[in-house]
């Protein structure tokens, strides 16, 4: 049955703001609705009177508020002429299972080791991509096994890896109540110190360390020359090639390793020192590097490019992060010089300024108070724009109609993080509420009525562009789909979507649609960081 009532299918923490969206297909007037317990007993009546003309979904929406329902239980919402919503739960631990699944994904993306049947189930495989890779343009070979497969493909790329590591470490810093609940699908990992959560991130960092050349630079990526078919990772036997070093990879690694060095310092001094040394060597190498126009795929290589014409925000992040960890004056000077020209923002793989802002304004070493203030104001200004968007959207998303680009769900999640930053800076709960709305959007309160995280909620994505899922005919659980992309950039999207398709509905839940329905480790990391922030106990 077609749905007209939209909520977060994974549910709500009791004292959260709870909003429901009605897609008006009949009379354009406020909607009287009821909240019922799953046994049919009535608990609440309300009227959805906030009317929104929604150009992103090409709908008229009415928004209702049922925040007053706070008792733990299972519920659904009904309204005359609109039918029934999905069943959802209200409970303080409602996101624990969602978190567990979304994080177990990283273990299942591991490259270069056996994923045994007892841990991987149908996604088990033997150690993949273990042969030494040839360095592009040379006869040299290098052992670079390990790390996570990036996405639906089996490439391993440094820029998005650095982003994922940073976001997961932030999640750890911000909500250890949640991250300490994590249990790896591989029970042997659960004995690892200090925690299975940090052990998973170390798996990626160990690989990133191998991607550093003797001169301190970071190779951009390691992949086969082309994407393989829909096979399991241990079936991809083509030669591995290491692409040339790039400024973005080198700067991103310097930054992520500095951040990690700080966090592992408390629990594993030796590892922290290894990361510190590698970080500083990468930073020094970066200072002497330029790469006009950014990394471009060599002609023989057609895997993900992760090109980026501007590497200043990566240098900016590196300078701030190394200053926060090591305190050397030169990093401070570098950051302040770049920040005096422009304050950058972004938690993406391409725009990374926000990581730098975060490091600088939370540094334990002395900072320029006036600059720190300007950065904070700029962060709040960005959040104000996002808050405005969220309040004017029928589903509370911060995306505007032109924001449904490749990986739009990443931008929804990251905007939630920007909003949460403003909450941290000001204590104004409007920002936190709007941040939470981004989570609700991803988990079902959207015009597709889809839970964009596989294996969760009542109506989740079932056919993501993900090779192990496609090969087995069953979606791995806990993966965030890229989400609506109105540009129609793959054959399936071209065939099934039209120019008239509403931007927020430009998604095809079919394996072939990589531009709307792929998954990546860095979309999941954004989701996990947002979840960790929203589920913080100190919020409640
Ligand atoms: O930066 C521009 C922005 O200025 C403009 O307003 C906007 C409007 O179109 O586009 C922005 O560029 C987008 C770019 O990502 C940066 O975010 C492009 O449209 C968009 O097509 C591009 O998509 C990237 C895609 O690769 C194609 O290059 C995705 O972000 C990126 O996640 C994806 O990465 C792939 C890897 O290559 C291979 N592995 C899977 C992975 C996920 O699909
Ligand atoms: O599977 C690939 C996916 O990870 C990438 O994001 C996407 C865009 O670069 O490309 C996918 O691979 C497709 C290739 O580009 C064209 N032939 C079909 C491949 C998917 O089966
Ligand atoms: Zn592999």
Which short descriptors sum up this protein?
540 residues, Glycosyltransferase, five-stranded antiparallel beta sheet, five-stranded mixed beta sheet, 14 strands, binds ligand G3I, binds ligand 9MR
Named once each, the bound ligands are:
ligand G3I, ligand 9MR, zinc ion
- Given the structure, what is the number of helices? 17
Using the CA coordinates, give the radius of gyration: 23 Å
Shape descriptor: globular
Mean pLDDT: 97
Strand content: 5-15%
Question: What does this molecule look like?
Answer:
55% of the residues are buried. The chain has helices at 96-108, 117-120, 158-174, 176-179, 196-210, 247-264, 269-287, 312-326, 329-341, 353-361, 369-392, 408-426, 429-442, 467-472, 491-496, 514-517, 521-534; strands at 5-6, 19-23, 31-37, 42-48, 50-54, 59-65, 73-79, 83-84, 88-90, 133-135, 141-142, 156-157, 221-223, 241-242. The chain has a domain at 127-340: Glycosyltransferase, CATH 1.50.10. Strand 3 (31-37) and strand 4 form a beta hairpin. It has 17 helices and 14 strands. The longest helix has 24 residues, at 369-392. With 540 residues, the protein is α+β, with helices and mostly antiparallel strands. The protein binds ligand G3I, ligand 9MR and zinc ion. Ligand 9MR binds next to loops. Ligand G3I is lined by residues 150-151, 153, 155, 304, 350, 405-407, 514, 518, 520.
């Amino acid at each position: 049955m077609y749905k007209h009532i939209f909520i977060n299918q994974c549910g709500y923490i009791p004292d959260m703001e709870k909003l429901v969206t009605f897609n008006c297909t009949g009379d354009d007037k406020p909607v009287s609705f009821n909240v019922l317990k799953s046994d049919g007993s009535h608990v609440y009546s309300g009227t959805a009177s906030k009317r929104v003309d929604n150009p992103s979904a090409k709908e008229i929406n009415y928004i209702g508020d049922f925040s007053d329902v706070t008792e733990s239980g299972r519920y659904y919402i009904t309204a005359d002429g609109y039918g029934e919503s999905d069943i959802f739960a209200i409970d303080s631990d409602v996101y624990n299972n969602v978190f567990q699944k979304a994080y177990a994904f990283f273990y299942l993306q591991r490259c270069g080791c056996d994923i045994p049947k007892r841990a991987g189930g149908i996604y088990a495989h033997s150690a993949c991509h273990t042969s030494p890779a040839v360095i592009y343009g040379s006869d040299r070979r290098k052992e670079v096994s390990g790390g996570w497969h990036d996405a639906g493909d089996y490439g391993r790329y440094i820029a998005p890896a650095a982003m994922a590591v940073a976001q997961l470490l932030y999640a750890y810093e911000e909500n250890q109540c949640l991250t300490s609940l994590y249990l790896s699908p591989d029970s042997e990992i659960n004995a690892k110190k200090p925690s299975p959560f940090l052990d998973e991130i170390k798996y990626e960092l160990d690989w990133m360390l191998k991607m550093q050349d003797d001169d301190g630079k970071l190779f951009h990526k390691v992949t086969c020359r082309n994407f393989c078919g829909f096979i399991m990772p241990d079936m991809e036997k083509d030669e591995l090639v290491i692409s040339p070093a790039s400024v973005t990879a080198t700067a991103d690694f310097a930054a992520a390793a500095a951040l990690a060095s700080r966090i592992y310092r408390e629990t594993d001094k030796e590892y922290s020192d290894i990361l510190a040394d590698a970080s500083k060597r990468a930073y020094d190498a970066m200072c002497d590097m330029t790469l006009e126009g950014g990394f471009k795929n060599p002609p023989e290589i057609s895997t993900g490019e992760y090109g980026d014409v501007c590497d200043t925000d990566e240098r900016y992040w590196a300078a701030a992060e190394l200053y926060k960890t090591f305190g050397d004056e030169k990093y401070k000077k570098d950051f302040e010089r770049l920040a005096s020209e422009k304050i950058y923002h972004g938690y993406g793989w391409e725009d990374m300024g926000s990581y730098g802002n975060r490091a600088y304004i939370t540094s334990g070493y002395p900072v320029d108070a006036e600059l720190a203030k300007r950065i904070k104001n700029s962060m709040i200004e960005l959040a104000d724009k996002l808050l405005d968007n969220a309040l004017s959207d029928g589903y509370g998303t911060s995306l505007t109609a032109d924001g449904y680009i490749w990986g739009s769900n990443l931008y929804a999640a990251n905007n939630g993080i920007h909003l949460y930053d403003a909450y941290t800076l000001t204590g104004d709960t409007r920002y936190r509420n709007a941040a939470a709305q981004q989570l609700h959007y991803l988990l079902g309160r959207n015009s597709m009525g889809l839970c964009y995280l596989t294996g969760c909620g009542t109506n989740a994505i079932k056919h993501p562009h993900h090779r192990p899922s496609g090969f087995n005919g069953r979606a791995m659980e806990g993966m965030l789909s890229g989400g609506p992309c109105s540009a129609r950039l793959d054959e399936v999207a071209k065939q099934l979507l039209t120019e008239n398709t509403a931007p927020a509905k430009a998604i095809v839940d079919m394996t072939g649609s990589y531009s709307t329905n792929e998954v990546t480790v860095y979309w999941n990391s954004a989701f996990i960081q947002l979840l960790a922030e929203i589920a913080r106990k100190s919020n409640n």
